[in-house]
Amino acid sequence: MYEAALKHARSQQFESARDAFADCVAACPSLVKAYISWAQMEKRSLLEGEQEGCHLRRAQRVLQRGLTRNPYSASLCQAWGLLELQKGNFLAAVRLLDKSVVYDPSFSPVLRWRQVIDARSSIPPRRHAAITVQQQTLQF
């Protein structure tokens, strides 16, 4: 099912790909790479006549759905964090990227990326302190 969904996505048959991805995650809700591939497809699929940003909201909903079903997935947290970074939602991006590292420390290199460092520095100090407290809570 996953391979069929990818095939549709690669050939820009977006409706067929959406159906195939939906069937795939319904059959195997823990297949994290299916949610990420689906979200990547949505990110690229600005439909004719659609307002800018709708494709990013669809990608966000897919990742949110994946995290609902796989709440400790570092991969989904990182994918969603990077999407929020691209959208300019720096607080959400930093929170999600930090959470991905808490779930899997091997994801830490992304925290050294210039865009992530810049995003973190743009967050007001009071908000930054709240993130630090949340990180410490997650680690215990």
Short recap of the structure:
InterPro entries: HAT, TPR-like_helical_dom_sf. With 140 residues, the protein is mainly alpha-helical.
Task: Walk me through this protein's architecture.
The chain has two domains: 1-71, Serine Threonine Protein Phosphatase 5, Tetratricopeptide repeat, CATH 1.25.40; 72-140, no CATH class. Helix content is 74%, strand content 0%. The protein is built from eight helices and no strands. Helix 3 (32-44) runs antiparallel to helix 4 (54-69). The mean pLDDT is 89.
List the domain count as a whole number: 2
The gyration radius over C-alpha positions equals 16 Å
Counting H and I runs of at least 4 residues, what is the number of helices?
A: 8
Distance between the termini: 38 Å
Using brief descriptors, characterize the structure shown.
single chain; 140 residues; mainly alpha; Serine Threonine Protein Phosphatase 5, Tetratricopeptide repeat; 8 helices; globular
SSE topology sketch:
Layout: H1 2-10, H2 14-27, H3 32-44, H4 54-69, H5 74-87, H6 90-103, H7 114-121, H8 125-139
Helix pairs in contact: 1-2, 1-3, 2-3, 3-4, 4-5, 5-6, 6-8
GO biological process, one term: RNA processing
InterPro entries: HAT, TPR-like_helical_dom_sf
